[in-house]
């Protein structure tokens, strides 16, 4: 007898806690941790987010599953920002509409999912902001204004250009530091 995907997901997640376990379109995906470049990008983003997040009483979670419905795919963003008391489905699963920002750093194997699949699942589930940092294209893309099957707004900044996270953030990200580790020069 084949076990339901949700049961297999939980089993694999429990067996491999050091890996990122997701479901996508009926498939279980077990992803290794990021490269040093991937982690440097996340460090640079954390450096820019930590002050505003702490000042508002929010939290940054690096390894949490996003709940998008009972039969929906399960994603584990590279970073998730949540309010002081987010709505949880389980201890390791936060509701998408109870997040403040989800972040994906594009890898060679995640391009299509990061740009096309995930936004189509996040928007109808009320994820307010989805940030895609793409070191290959040297761009940062912000999906905002969720509603229906797609986001109402997509803002792109090339490496070195500022990217503003709108209200409640009101924060300009330095994409040069994200993509180059410095001022973009």
Automatic annotation (TrEMBL):
Q: What are the UniProt keywords, alphabetically? A: Endonuclease, Hydrolase, Nuclease
Q: Which InterPro entries match?
A: Nuclease_put_TT1808, Restrct_endonuc-II-like, Uma2
| Keyword Hydrolase set for record | yes
Question: What GO MF annotations does this protein's record show?
Answer: endonuclease activity
Q: Secretion signal: which residues?
A: none
Q: Which domain of life is it from?
A: Bacteria
Every copy of the Putative restriction endonuclease domain together lies at 17-168
What PANTHER family does this protein map onto?
SLL1072 PROTEIN (PTHR35400:SF3), SLR1083 PROTEIN (PTHR35400)
Entry protein name = Uma2 family endonuclease
């Amino acid at each position: 007898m084949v076990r339901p995907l949700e049961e297999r997901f939980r089993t694999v997640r429990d067996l491999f806690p050091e890996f990122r376990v997701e479901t996508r379109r009926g498939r279980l995906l077990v992803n290794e941790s990021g490269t040093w470049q991937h982690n440097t990008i996340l460090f640079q983003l954390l450096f820019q987010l930590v002050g505003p997040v702490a000042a508002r009483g929010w939290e940054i979670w690096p390894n949490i599953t996003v709940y998008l419905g009972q039969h929906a795919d399960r994603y584990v963003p590279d970073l998730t920002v949540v309010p002081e008391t987010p709505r949880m489905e389980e201890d390791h699963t936060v509701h998408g509409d109870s997040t403040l920002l989800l972040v994906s750093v594009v890898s060679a194997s995640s391009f299509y999912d990061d740009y096309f699949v995930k936004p189509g699942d996040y928007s109808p589930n009320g994820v307010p902001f989805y940030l895609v940092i793409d070191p290959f294209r040297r761009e940062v893309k912000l999906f905002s204004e969720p509603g229906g099957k797609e986001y109402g707004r997509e803002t792109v900044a090339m490496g070195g250009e500022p990217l503003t996270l709108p209200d409640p953030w009101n924060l300009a990200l330095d994409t040069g530091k994200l993509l180059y580790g410095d001022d973009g020069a």
